[in-house]
Structures are given as structure tokens and as C-alpha cells.
Amino acid sequence: HVEVLQRVKNKKTRNELTVSLLEQISSIGRGLCVLLGISVEDTQKDVDYMVCKILNLYLFEDENGRAWSRSVMDRELEVLCASQFTLQCILKGNKPDFHSAMPAELAQPFYNNMLEQLREAYKAELIKDGQFGAKMQVLIQNDGPVTIQLESPAGPTEPKLLSKQEKQQQRKEKTRSKGPSESSREKAALRSKADPSASSGAEGDVSSEREP
């Protein structure tokens, strides 16, 4: 799935349907605002990947002011999540199409599961929920400004698996560069048997045989 992570200050949500959400979220301090777009193809592996990245990306400075060296967990900052199906938009001309977004009845438990994993991996009180499916106004002060688009990969995410895949690809390329394959040599042999006048040697041998 797709996420947009924004490093922010003084973020809050305003729900037009239930004003009480302001009491739940109110104004929280510095941290990340995560806009989450869930795809129809998303699985638990996508959740695992996103949770890991949200909590561990180096988007903050350290105690000495060195940029891009601390994560939200390192700094013990807050994370505000909001489900955002429009991130799965596909444009058909000028009209947005949202068929690639997971239907709400499936996306809500998926979203809740991700929140639960964030709370288990971090500090539950620092994970805030923008309330699934509500019509909201998200008020943020973008810090930096820093906005990161994060998309879960289609292939293996573990470094060891990626390394193994790269080595396999390199071996395939080396095999291709070693000349004709077994199947090519077999085809050449069959052609020679079918045509006795064909030479299995170099072209020079053929021309010399045809000279008077």
C-alpha cells in the first residue's frame, strides 16, 4: 500500500461528524502524520513493512542537531494515523478512480490491525488515530517541510532475500553471455543431419570444398 509521512508540529484532526474527536486527539506535539492508502492487494506483509518503516525511518535530527539521524522512536515522538483511500487514486482522464482501494468493510479491520501493531511495537499512548471513515479536516504544520512517500515493495523485503535474488540474477546474466545454449547446439546438430551438404566447420571449409 501507499503512505505519505509528514514530519509535523502541532497536528490535530477536526471531525465534521463528531466534535468529540477533538477531545480524543486534541492537539499533539511534534512527530509524524501518516496518511495511509490501503490497496485491494495488501496483505499482512505490507503491514509489517510499513510499521517497521514508520517507526524507524531517520526523519529527525539528533541531540546535536545532525539531520536525518533519528527516528520517531529514538526521539519518543508521536504518530498520528489517518486512513486515506484517495492515495489509491488512478486517473482516468480528469476523473479520479478509486477501485484499487480496499473496500471499507475490509479496510477498517486492516487499518485497526496496523494501529495495534504500531502500539505493540512502540508506546501505545504515542500512537493516535484519526478515526477510520470519518470526514475530517487534518490540520498540520509541516516541519521542514518534510514529506515522504512510502510504498511497500512487491518483492522480498529482507536484505538477505534481496541479496540472494541479486546473485541469482547475476548468474543468469553470466549464463547468457557464455555463448549458445544447449538447445541452440542441439538445433544446429539436427540441421546438419537433415542437410548432408551442410558443414559443421567454419565457412572457409565450405567455400574450399566447392572450388573446382
TrEMBL record:
<dbReference type="Pfam" id="PF02580">
    <property type="entry name" value="Tyr_Deacylase"/>
</dbReference>
<feature type="compositionally biased region" description="Basic and acidic residues">
    <location>
        <begin position="183"/>
        <end position="194"/>
    </location>
</feature>
<keyword id="KW-0694">RNA-binding</keyword>
<keyword id="KW-0820">tRNA-binding</keyword>
<comment type="similarity">
    <text>Belongs to the DTD family.</text>
</comment>
<dbReference type="GO" id="GO:0051500">
    <property type="term" value="F:D-tyrosyl-tRNA(Tyr) deacylase activity"/>
</dbReference>
<keyword id="KW-0378">Hydrolase</keyword>
<dbReference type="GO" id="GO:0005737">
    <property type="term" value="C:cytoplasm"/>
</dbReference>
<feature type="compositionally biased region" description="Basic and acidic residues">
    <location>
        <begin position="161"/>
        <end position="172"/>
    </location>
</feature>
<protein>
    <recommendedName>
        <fullName>D-aminoacyl-tRNA deacylase</fullName>
        <ecNumber>3.1.1.96</ecNumber>
    </recommendedName>
</protein>
<dbReference type="GO" id="GO:0000049">
    <property type="term" value="F:tRNA binding"/>
</dbReference>
<feature type="region of interest" description="Disordered">
    <location>
        <begin position="149"/>
        <end position="212"/>
    </location>
</feature>
<keyword id="KW-0963">Cytoplasm</keyword>
<dbReference type="InterPro" id="IPR003732">
    <property type="entry name" value="Daa-tRNA_deacyls_DTD"/>
</dbReference>
<dbReference type="InterPro" id="IPR023509">
    <property type="entry name" value="DTD-like_sf"/>
</dbReference>
